[in-house]
Amino acid sequence: KEYVMGKYDPTPYQLDLQRYPRLVSDTIPGPRSNELHARAAKHYRGLSGQVRLFPVAFAKGYGCVLQDVDGNEYIDFSSGIYVTTLGHCHPKISEAVAKYAGLLMNAHDFTTEIKVRLLEKMAQCLPGDLKSYQLYDSGTTAVEAGLRTCRAATGKHEFISCYMDFHGKSGHAISLARMTKFSGPTRSPGFHLVPRPDCYRPWWTRPDGTLDTEKYLDFYDTFIRESTTGQVAAFVLEPIQGWGGSIMPPDDFFPKLRQFLNERNILLFADEVLTSMGRTGKYLCMEHWNVLPDIVTLGKGFGNGFPVTAMAVRTPYADAVDKISASTSYGGNPMACAAALACFEVIEEEGLLEHAQHLEVLFKKRMADWTSKYRIVGDTRCKGCLLGIELVKDKTTKEPFDAAGKMVYQKAFRKGLAWVPAGHILRMSPPIVMPDEVALKGMDLIEEAIAETEKELA
Length: 458
Fold this sequence. Notes:
alpha/beta
């Protein structure tokens, strides 16, 4: 059914669906955006790829719409790179943060009533015996704490993770990923990378050409025996790759991996900083496969823009958290707790898990014929409001088409769609509060950009 705002002031979300996107400047990005970008460039370094490709300066957002400093209004298919899952400036969340900004900004890790209420809500909403928590201010910090917890819980020191997963930008978080842009060694001793299943680009297949999960597990078994010391504390991975391009596993992968790890006394550590809090239609993406990880990290949509993340630990390993000096200066501050609690309440009150699942059906139907309709579209994928489009030069060789990815991204942005590039893979993460008409209009802009790019590159 059509999404309707909950009991809180709906004014910012009552969108004139015929108005968006609304582009008013002669050039996109506009002159004011270009001016601010030039001023910032004198001092600011390390811009992301999406900003370099489209240096717009945003002024405000409301619901699923962003407005830049030139007055242009965009449909938001990025959610601030997977963060504002519940839309920009949701009234309840903004009010909660403002209340504690004027009441109590920080109290280190002392107990506050708002923190207790958040912890109790997490225990109510998260599955199984994931009942012990610690709060942080970034996904990377939560991941680092999770690694220390795994070591404390098992007495082991090695980790296995997957190529092209992303877990953060500090020392050990980088060691979990293949960060090729850094000079020198990028992984600490004891950190090992293995391939993960990708249904579009499988490493191992059955005779019929479909992905063979068992062969991945056979490889993991051989790898652990021959390439590690046997002291593997945990297997760490994203349920669905974000930075790697919305790569989704086959449905049998996580159930079989869970059994594989249980047989070897290795913990399962799910990094759900990107995929949690309704992004895929569940509080945890792992719920889609009825698999309970031993340790989970939550973030991004956990605070809907306020910098708050969490580590959740299953009851058998909860005592390990007491051994790792787990607290931080900012993680459990009252403003952060208020924001996260409000996010849980909004999801419940507005039926947003169900709406994200509804949007998944809508998006899949809209993209269903794109691989047959367009020569450059190799694959489309979607789980809730986490989508990806893979562009290729040739559908037989599946050679990545980076130039097409850049063009489609820029063309759609100039048409009024804010979203996320990843080389030849285009990523979409619309807010799960998005009305159907706005969602379909955003998909129209993407398809227009694909058609124009294919024609120009023919």
